[in-house]
Amino acid sequence: MQTTMTFRHMEQSDALKAYAEEKLERVVKYIDGPINAQVYFSVEKKIRHIVEIVISAKGVSTKASEATNDMYAAIDAVIDKIERQLKRYKEKIKAHKPNGDEHSRQLSKKVFEAESIEASAEPVVIKTTTETAKPMSVDEAVMQMDLLHKDFIVFIDADSGEINVLYRRKDGNFGLIEPHRA
């Protein structure tokens, strides 16, 4: 596991680093492949200790944060939260057939400047992001959205092989956009 530790508004502590690395070993059993973990420690108003952990691995990524009045308690709480998320993910994934990444596609997302759209001129791209659309079922896509706290996800439907978009509606339910060829 490759771990990156970042300290904000506080001094670096080898004891906190060692404690966090020891606790992160609990989640290794739930994830396959190379694991990249980023741990952020921060202190607000000298009493609020916040720990945020972002874990990325082959096929799964998750993040969680916790704030308490003790840094060690915050580490324990956030590790428990991530462990619950990964357990739930692993249980749901068992019901689905494993999908290889050989069917993944690279997608490009563009963000346009609002003023350029309102004017009848050509829109200006202000940001472009490339992401990999992985084959998965709708249930897996919902799970990934929950794990990553996203409002939408673009994925390849494991059954049809088509690119789909799953999004969170304002009423809390989900919407699915499936392509239809004329």
Present the secondary structure layout.
Layout: E1 2-8, H1 14-24, E2 35-44, E3 48-57, E4 60-68, H2 71-94, E5 105-112, H3 114-118, E6 125-133, E7 135-136, H4 138-148, E8 152-157, E9 163-168, E10 174-177
Parallel strand pairs: 1-2, 7-8
Antiparallel strand pairs: 2-3, 3-4, 5-6, 8-9, 9-10
Helix pairs in contact: 1-2, 2-4
Brief description of this entry?
With about 180 residues, the chain is α+β, with helices and mostly antiparallel strands. It contains four helices and ten strands.
Verbal overview:
It is a single chain. This protein has 182 residues and is an alpha+beta fold. It has two domains: 2-94, Double Stranded RNA Binding Domain (2-Layer Sandwich); 101-177, 2-Layer Sandwich (SHC Adaptor Protein). Helices cover 28% and strands 39% of the residues. The chain is built from four helices and ten strands; from the N terminus they run E-H-E-E-E-H-E-H-E-E-H-E-E-E. The strands form three sheets. A four-stranded mixed sheet has the order 1-2-3-4. A four-stranded mixed sheet has the order 7-8-9-10. A hairpin with a 2-residue loop joins strand 3 and strand 4. Helix 1 (14-24) packs parallel to helix 2 and helix 2 runs antiparallel to helix 4 (138-148). The longest helix has 24 residues, at 71-94. The mean pLDDT is 80.
